């Protein structure tokens, strides 16, 4: 996937330990430009540690990583200039107003007074914060704080944005607003590195997901590829004639339901397995009115890979 695109983020064999606690045990990551990569894992899996290394906040013990072509260990300044980071603990100053927070970021990025003002007003508008701009973020809702946090990180016009659990604690509507912001950023060419405990979020947004567990990437792929990793998928056929149900169920090793005219066949949903089913249908000369593929959801994948029940997005 996206093999032709240059890599915005590349990490090879990253390791990190705190004393005897090996937090990262050799992590490889490749994120093509203009895509959304999601690092998914239970509490304590090492997600924030990975983000902290890639954003130059802490050094790795081994391996190497590049962001926008710059080495995070040897060229930290270049990395910092090209990234934006929003975190579980927002960099928002609670005493300044929303507008003043954005001005401060503009000055930190040496934008100049006029450009700082222009971008501030543009971002306030874009993130629906114009009304709130005069107030201190301490008075904002969780969703507004998150939007201001993302707006602040955009003042520097970053090519890569790290979103560390951007919707934790938000209600469903706040979460959807953040998702649509993320989608718009990617449409404009930004690369997103997203950590989340919410499978639904990774499923909605990510081009590629890596599941981190115990400091190791235990599976990687598109949401669809990951769903094929666990058993539980099946193909449902709806036949035109009841008298053919039993025969098709038998030759495809499925379960037939004569009343419903359906046959359910265990399948990983891959092209190969579908081809086999279609070939058999052809050979048997059976008319199929409908074929649907059911893949397991990411909850099943996460549980089978990590042994953890995934975090629930609660309102
Ligand atoms: N400064 C530190 N000193 C010692 N141990 C640390 C330090 N920072 C992180 N750890 C340990 O590293 C492990 C991974 O932590 P990390 O914060 O990267 O996990 P995470 O996947 O981001 O989890 P969460 O979803 O809870 O934020 C944990 O066991 C944590 O206790």
Automatic annotation (TrEMBL):
Record GO cellular component, one term: plasma membrane
PROSITE patterns: ABC_TRANSPORTER_1, ABC_TRANSPORTER_2
SUPFAM superfamilies for this protein: P-loop containing nucleoside triphosphate hydrolases (SSF52540)
Membrane topology note: Peripheral membrane protein
Subcellular location as annotated: Cell membrane
Keywords assigned by UniProt, alphabetized: Antibiotic resistance, ATP-binding, Cell membrane, Membrane, Nucleotide-binding, Translocase, Transport
MF (Gene Ontology): ATP binding; ATP hydrolysis activity
Origin superkingdom: Bacteria
Domain ABC transporter: 9-239
InterPro entries: AAA+_ATPase, ABC_transporter-like_ATP-bd, ABC_transporter-like_CS, ABC_transporter_ATP-binding, DrrA, DrrA1/2-like_C, P-loop_NTPase
GO biological processes: daunorubicin transport; doxorubicin transport; response to antibiotic
Chief place of localization: membrane
Family named by the database record: Belongs to the ABC transporter superfamily. Drug exporter-1 (DrugE1) (TC 3.A.1.105) family.
PANTHER family membership: ABC TRANSPORTER ATP-BINDING PROTEIN, DOXORUBICIN RESISTANCE ATP-BINDING PROTEIN DRRA
Protein name: ABC-2 type transport system ATP-binding protein
């Amino acid at each position: 996937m996206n093999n032709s695109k240059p890599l915005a983020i590349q990490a090879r064999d990253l390791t990190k330990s705190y004393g005897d606690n090996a937090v990262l045990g050799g992590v490889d990551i490749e994120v093509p430009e203009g895509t959304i990569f999601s690092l998914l894992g239970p509490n304590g899996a090492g997600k924030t540690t990975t983000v902290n290394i890639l954003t130059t906040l802490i050094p790795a013990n081994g391996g190497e990583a590049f962001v926008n072509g710059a080495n995070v260990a040897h060229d930290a300044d270049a990395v910092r200039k090209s990234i934006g980071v929003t975190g579980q603990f927002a960099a928002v100053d609670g005493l300044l107003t929303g507008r003043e927070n954005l001005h401060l970021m503009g000055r930190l990025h040496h934008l100049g007074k006029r450009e700082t003002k222009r971008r501030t007003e543009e971002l306030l508008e874009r993130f629906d914060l114009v009304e709130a701009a005069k107030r201190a973020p301490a008075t904002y809702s969780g969703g507004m704080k998150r939007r201001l946090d993302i707006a602040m990180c955009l003042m520097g016009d970053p090519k890569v944005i790290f979103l560390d659990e951007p919707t934790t604690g938000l209600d469903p509507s706040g979460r959807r607003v953040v998702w649509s912001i993320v989608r718009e950023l990617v449409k404009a060419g930004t690369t997103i590195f997203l950590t989340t405990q919410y499978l639904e979020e990774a499923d909605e947004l990510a081009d590629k997901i890596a599941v981190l567990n115990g400091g190791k990437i235990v599976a990687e792929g598109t949401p669809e590829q990951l769903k094929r990793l666990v058993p539980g998928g099946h193909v449902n056929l709806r036949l035109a004639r009841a008298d053919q149900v039993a025969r098709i169920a038998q030759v495809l090793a499925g379960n037939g339901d004569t009343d419903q005219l359906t046959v359910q066949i265990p399948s990983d949903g891959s092209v190969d397995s579908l081809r086999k089913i279609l070939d058999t249908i052809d050979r048997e000369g059976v008319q199929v009115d409908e074929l649907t593929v059911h893949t397991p959801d990411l909850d099943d994948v996460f549980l089978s890979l990590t042994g953890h029940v995934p975090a629930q997005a609660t309102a």
